[in-house]
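Person: At home tonight, work slowly through the protein below, taking as long as you need, and write a paragraph about the fold.
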Amino acid sequence: MINDFLGKIKGQSVLLSNVMSLGIVQVANCLIPILIVPFVTNALNVEMYGKTVFAQNIISYLTILVNFGFEYSATQDIAINKGDKEKLRAVFWSVIRQKLCLLLISFILLWVCGFFYEKVSEDKYLFFYAALINVGFVFFPSWFFQGIEKMFSMSIFNLAIKGLGAVLIVLVINEPSDYRIYILILSLSYVLVGLLAFAYVIRKYDLKYEPFDRNIDVAILKKGLPIFVNNLFAALYATSGITLIGAFMTDYDTGVYSGAHRIISAILMVTSMPISVALFPLVSRKFNESRELGWLFFKKSIVIVGFLSLTLSIFVYFASDIAVDLLLRGDFEDAKPLLRIFSALPFLVMIASFLTVQGLYGMQLQKYAPYIGISVALICVCITYFTLPKYGIYGAAYSYIVAEILEIGIAGAVLFFCKKKDC
């Protein structure tokens, strides 16, 4: 009985440590760029800032291709087999090989895009510099650390590297013509941390190279495919506003919308992402042990997550004006009402993510995820497209809110049906 009690305490402390560590990683990935936004916008102006964010937005779709859902599918394989060193090596090198192939495909797609999309061909160096970030995503094995639940040391390392990048940006970016250098520094910081983390895990965990194994590679690719499709369409409705605004409206509109969007994205990355990713290996194991144990843990967790995220949404609503004044300044007055609209997202995104990631992925029902993602994305893009001419950037913001509500409804219905039918 005492051993069981101590085991529970140890498990909870590991979970808390992982949540905090992932929070530090997300601070490095997202909050540091937000904190330097006042310096960047003052140097670049709203229009050039909008141009850089649009390039990052386009490249984000290629990032999803490179990651291919491995952040969940590979994490699950590592978590379930973390006691088997040979299996860990096989999974690790299979994922790296596939990511390298996907990276090559992503650069080919960007090159082809330049022939059909004038904005890419007009500023090809900007988009190439933005695309370099995917080299970092190939080599940074976040999925491996999440699977073995060892994130603290890497989170500190990540924070230090991103801090260095922020210092370089503040020192180097001085005028609008520096907008390409700004993107290059951001990308190279990811590349640096990715390569160093890659070398670290190989040495620390004795991950000697494993040759190509067709069965393992195909199995991992198949497992990641539905998650990739869902992530692609989820990103489509999350970022379609920036994509369509950048394509059909002015750089100023893109800059204002992306300013508010970046603040709320930072909040989501620092809160929703760490909780979701840290819980996932634990939920997967619970469901792997028994369906009843998994559901019990799932229900307890969603109540806590729902309460915390609702509190955060209320706080963001009332702090919107202050956040814009502190983080954006200058010509971003129009971002204040946008951020108030976006304030509902911490609650909506966290619940939607919990139902999809912890529920569907945890129960290995990821085959349903693409259908949810496609349905929600198509509805969101249509709403955005038809509301932009009349309501402008506010139409795009409201379509994002509607999309998250739809995802909650559909994912919740699928989970309810599967639980009832024991599928």
User: Anything to note?
Assistant: Residues 15-421 form one domain. The chain has one domain: 15-421.
